[in-house]
Amino acid sequence: MAFRQYKLGTVGVGLMLGLSMTITLMLPSFDFRSAESTWVGLDKALSNGRLIGFSYEDPLVRGANKPITVILKEDPKTGATIDPPIRAYVYKPGTPFASPINHPDNLGPTVKSLGVERGKIDQAAKASGAVFTIEYADVNGQEWAYPVNATAVKGWSPDAALATAGDQNSRYVGRGKTVYITEGCWWCHTLLPEQTQDWQVFGAPPYLGDFNGEMPTAFGSDRKAPDILHVASRNSSREWMMMHFFNPRLVQPNSIMPRFDYLWGRVDVDGNKIDFKKWRAEYDEYRRGLRSHPPEVPEYARDTEIRALIDWVLTSLK
Amino acid sequence: MLFKFLFAKNEDIPPGSAAVFFGFSSILWFIIGTGLGSFNAAKLAFPDFATGVELFAFGHMRQVHVLAVILGWISMAFAMTMMYMTPSLGNTKLWSEKLGLWTAFNWNIGLSLGLILLWMGITSGREYSDLIWPIDLVVVFGVLVPLGINVWMTIAHRRTQGIYITNWFFGSCIFFVIMVFLVGQSAEMFNLTGLTEAYLTFWFAHNVLGLWITPVAAAIAYYTIPKLTGNPLYSHRIGHLHFWSIIAFYSTPAAHHLMSTPLPEWLKSFASVEGVLILIPAVAFVANILLTMKGRWSMFVENIEIKFSVTGVLLAIPLNMQGGFQQTRAINWYIHGTGWIVAHAHLALLGMSTALEIAAVYFGLQQMLRRKLYSLALANFHFWFFIIGFCIYWISMTIAGLIQGAGKIYEVPYIDVVIAEHPYMIARWVGGSMVFTGNMVWLYNMYMTAREGTVVPKGRYAHELAYER
After folding, report:
1. What value of ipTM does the predicted structure carry?
2. What confidence score (pLDDT) does residue A90 get?
3. Which of A98, A260, A274, B84 could form a cystine bridge with A245, CB 3.0-4.6 A?
4. Which overall architecture, per CATH, does domain A180-316 show?
5. Cβ of residue B183 closer than 8 Å to a chain A Cβ
6. What angle do CA B70, B75, B77 make, to 5 degrees?
7. Is B189 helix (H, G, I), strand (E, B) or coil?
8. Which domains does chain B have, with CATH numbers?
């Protein structure tokens, strides 16, 4: 008898936790599995790459090995005009593919079959790289967005797509989302307008399929700043973003956002060293009323973290 | 001084060494954690404070504060209490002091490494699961599993017939937290994405609080209150009601953290109902402990450990009343994502849980060192700085949260909410800094206890002796 309660109790604890995990993990997994990806979900997954945060391809979380997002106005192979221009996600050889390309089940059943049958996404190979686009198809009277492996379908090579596009301001979307995660922007800004309010100011809440293949989702739980899921629809000025990131008090005197001037790196776009000390001294003079206008914000160099971050904000957060 | 025992024979290590190592480590992490919290609060109140340096950026430090207090202070204080309460309740010795010392050593090294990486921005970007998965594996297999083996083996080798409620909690909660870590971090290890990832993040976040931080803290009170007052626990049966209802109800409401996301509606409703049922274990726990105090309420004034313990139990009342109802759809609509939640989280971790652990660490260190507390005056200073600082923080953040909630549903321009919150941000910084100050005094007090406290004679408890200072 001495050990009876001990054994029964231990088994009971295990069984109860098992039941709890069945209800809270296994049952919802059926719902998650049937979620069909939307255009937003595809766009996020394809522009972010395999995952954001610590990973084999990006161990220091600096945004390495991310796909490049471009807007194509002409066909990289034939040179024919594309109207309206389309978004393409260029994976150079060796760049790991987005999760839904590796695991098409993440797309949901309908989008998966479209992506595999029409989009040929299962034919993409990491070693030779690929270009992906998003197209629409009608299935049973409903419009579905699905991923297309343009390398297999249209013969677009990654190099040709990049050469056709040039250095556009959408280039570093995946790297920009990485900066969002590492700099902890999501400790204050949320990416989740709430379902019953927030419509007027922050826009529509996300739909069920808006997250398929996204990692991490980084909704944010502690809103100390505006929701930014649709910020680029409210304010698409690169100039404003630049000033706001360098010192938020330049454009919003009551903001409590930290300055992100360190994302500029050492030099500006012309290769001149940025003198942060001088800038701050002049800004303090401006604050004390000794100057009529604040010092000029330096134009960032083209491969800096701030450029990547603004690329992501203005391209993805629409 | 304790490092020399790492390579000693288990029999040569004095009993209580592991508890002492864990105890001082936990206080140190508490100081680090609250110091970071105070620094972060200063940045929210004065945004140009320590600005323009990546390493002092708010977004690099916020998660370090959270994990330093959860994994450093609270979890190590738990380990400390397990190292002395489990054997004491089984009328036996700790299964292996050496394993305990190694666990404490690994824990400090692993956590320091993880937090440094996190501070540098090497993160998984998932709230509460911010540590990268290799560090998570260190936490599970280098820390939690050895801790569990020690506790389970000590319970198995007990020399009492029954198992006291505290040990039921200890043994089960270590198993739960191991499972919760492995399942919660599987999203990173296997690249699970989308809503699965979001849900697993909060499944982890909910269960690490609901199956580890609050129940183990409650288990500690089941030990300290009867031990210090000399009264038997009011009802072991009500204690079991608490234990089993925690497992049945509180392992399930993870989805109530994501009420405004497109999760399945049935899951949200289920989670919400289960969340209200937290009131059953909560009422059982609070009633049981307060009834145990019967006839000994003078100790609430006179005895520092009882003062902290009962404060923690009393804070469990608002904690569970808030927790039970704030996740229902109607109330969640108003306060989701506001400072109210921050206040509630601090009520759970800094209020209820921490107060109970402080008491257990005070008591345990005196018992294990066989030294009477160095100074009651400093301990009272610690108590009042802790409770006043906490209340300032809690009240100011609750008010800030209500302002934010109103701003949210009436769609006030966000910047006006920021302006309205400013005084409360300063108050939060003042409150947090008071807790931090109290903790530094505590560390000094415990250090002096180890060095100069009156030696407790064999067969006596420290709290039976009169203070000499």
Report:
1. 0.95
2. 97
3. A260
4. Orthogonal Bundle (1.10)
5. yes
6. 120
7. helix
8. 13-457 (1.20.210.10)
